[in-house]
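Human: We require from you a standard protein entry with sequence in single-letter code and fold as tokens, and nothing else.

Assistant:
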Amino acid sequence: MALSLAMALISAPLWAQASWPVLPGDSALTRSAECADIRQLVWAQLLAAQPASATRFRERTEANAWGMWKVYVDASGSGDADAFYTVISPQRGGAWPQYAQGSWIIKRSRADGAYLQAKIFLRSDSGTFARIYPNGSRSVIDIVAYGGVLYREVPLALPFETVLRTPLSRILELTKDIIDWSMFSPDPALYASLRSLAAGIRAKLPGLSYADDGAIDSDGNSVRIADGQAQTGTPGLNCSGFVKWITDGILYPLTKTLLPISGLKERMIDWRGSSFTEKWEERYDPFFGLDWSRALAREAWSVLYPRSVEQNPLAHDVNESPFAVVVSNAHPVNGGGSYRVYSDNFQDAGFELSGLKAVLFKLAVSEPGRWYLVQLNARDSSPPRLRRYFHLAAVLPYFEPDGTFTVAVFESAEETSLQRLMNGGYEFAKLVRMPVTGRFEPPALVPNP
């Protein structure tokens, strides 16, 4: 049974939140803008001053070897009412974004001036930062990226007041045995093939259209997935047929053939589900999207890496356990302060959608040159309350030449966004790894005679 975009019976929370535009032009973390000398300069009159005095600090600019910086106490009212926030931000593009790489935001108690935390932006993205807290005579550090808390309470052998006067480079050095700081200094050259694939897909989209249950068979004909019969009217692709079209475009330059639909439709009953779901296979086909994706991955990897053919259809699933907690607010000043537990990566469901971008960021930095089939699923609201795979998409996580992290999303013959997937009424996303080559030659979508 082919997948449909219809999700009217499913209800799930939305993950939409305010956004701040990502800024291009970041440096490697070891060369990012540094304000340790400015923090020391304003120490007595601001960072160590009593709250009544510190909150009267008049905004000013300072210069150092890295450029111009703005120093001020945030008065927007966006933070905790019982705290005040000192912001030290470098100038970027004629403005002073609070989340520019190298910015520090220091939170203190309004009541007694106690230090509560320091937030350091590792990239010019409001959702990517280090957060350092006092911990007795020392400190601890959390690393947050796109909602995922990648590291939590890593010991930092410095008193918090010392941290506030310490260069970031020293903090990196003290924690390098635990924190993989290189993830914030990616080499964009490693993602050239993915950027090329994304561009190739975009270039071909005008020649495509959507059609329920639509795909292109091994002979290049526009057919219905359910029965293999020719489509009538305007030909098109549904979400399943579209990701097959992408896979065909990658493999065709090597094989000069298109994948047959029959092999992709085979149910992998021995590899997923349970005795409960087995009795619903014929009526609901709940795992269609998962089986289809695993079959596409099996074909793609066997063509590109024939000496390492893996018979296990789960071989290309993303099985890594995720981070333990997530945050839901990316506001530069007060965002990310409230943690909640993040569920495990379940074999028959995948990742909870709220952490999907963080998962893709981790995959991008650890496995450059991979793209993913994402199978979106949710539990039916009515009996028998099956978890079903309702939709498929292709996601390409990569870094632009300017270092900006991007997730290109393609679904049902159009380019959309990660936010659209996350707000689509689904609950979990299963990820299957896909390879990429330097050529992309997908079949044309043509009307049947």
